[in-house]
Amino acid sequence: MTPERKARFLTILEERTKYITVAVEDVFQMHNASAVVRSCEVFGLQEAHLIESKYGQRLDSKIAMGAEKWVDVHRYETTQYCIDTLRADGYRIVATTPYANDCLLEDFKIEERTALFFGTERNGLTQTVLDQADGFLKIPMNGFTESLNISVSAAIILQRLTCQLRKGNLRWQLTGAEKLDKRIDWAKKTIQSIDDVLARYYGHK
User: Fold this and answer.
1) CB 36 within 8 Å of CB 48
2) What top-level class would CATH report for the domain 17-172?
3) What strands, in cross-sheet order, belong to the sheet with 20-25?
4) Which sequence spans correspond to the domains of the chain?
5) Per-residue confidence (pLDDT) for residue 150, from 0 to 100
6) pLDDT at residue 31 above 80?
7) I need a labelling partner for 34 at 20 to 30 A (CA). Which of 27, 51, 64, 133 fits?
């Protein structure tokens, strides 16, 4: 790798976070799931969670523009398993929906690790998420249309909440160990013929 690429890794890792994460539930349109992962990468989220119980894998590398290489994408066969996993990791479950008025985006405060759940294009989130959510988040809208495309909603919410996070005093950055792990992972994904390089390295040890 070039010194410039190494320096770029360090710069980006300083802005990476797992304090906010995203879970996408059974998105039908492949480009939507891919666009959400791309937004995660753009706004500095290190992890994304895809629930794929109905339609199978919904990630298109052409739409994600390579974001899946830099974001850790976790896949689940059921919504409940995703919720249980995130809760075990200390996340508050927040359902994004245009029909609940618990909290408008402009009033929403990040005070603890938060997992934002986004639902399908047609029906929104399942009752499984709605029944177990710790809170609800809504983007205010002033037109006739009741909802936004899921990828647009994710981009709007992530831009606002990551800005809020970086202006606050919470310890939102990755740990030193997490940064090192990602530097190694990204380096492997950057170097051509990495398997051959590693084979030669371990063969000489």
Assistant:
1) yes
2) alpha beta
3) 72-76, 47-51, 20-25, 114-118, 92-96, 135-137
4) 1-16+174-205, 17-172
5) 87
6) no
7) 133
Paired tokens of 27: 């998105």
Please name the amino acid found at residue 185: D
- How would DSSP label each residue in 146-178? ----HHHHHHHHHHHHHHHHHHS-S--BPPHHH
Rounded to two decimals, the pTM is: 0.87
Q: Is 65 left (phi over 0), alpha (psi -120 to 50) or beta?
A: left
Q: Are 72 and 47 in contact (CB under 8 A)?
A: yes
Pairing of strands 92-96, 20-25: unpaired
The two tokens of residue 180 are 């090192």
| 22: β partners | 48, 116
User: Cα(118)–Cα(30) distance, rounded to whole angstroms?
Assistant: 14
> Model confidence over 84-118: pLDDT tens digits?
999 999 999 999 987 777 899 999 999 999 999 99
Alpha helices in the chain (DSSP H): 3-13, 30-42, 61-64, 67-70, 79-88, 127-132, 150-167, 176-190, 194-203
Q: What is residue 86's three-state secondary structure?
A: helix
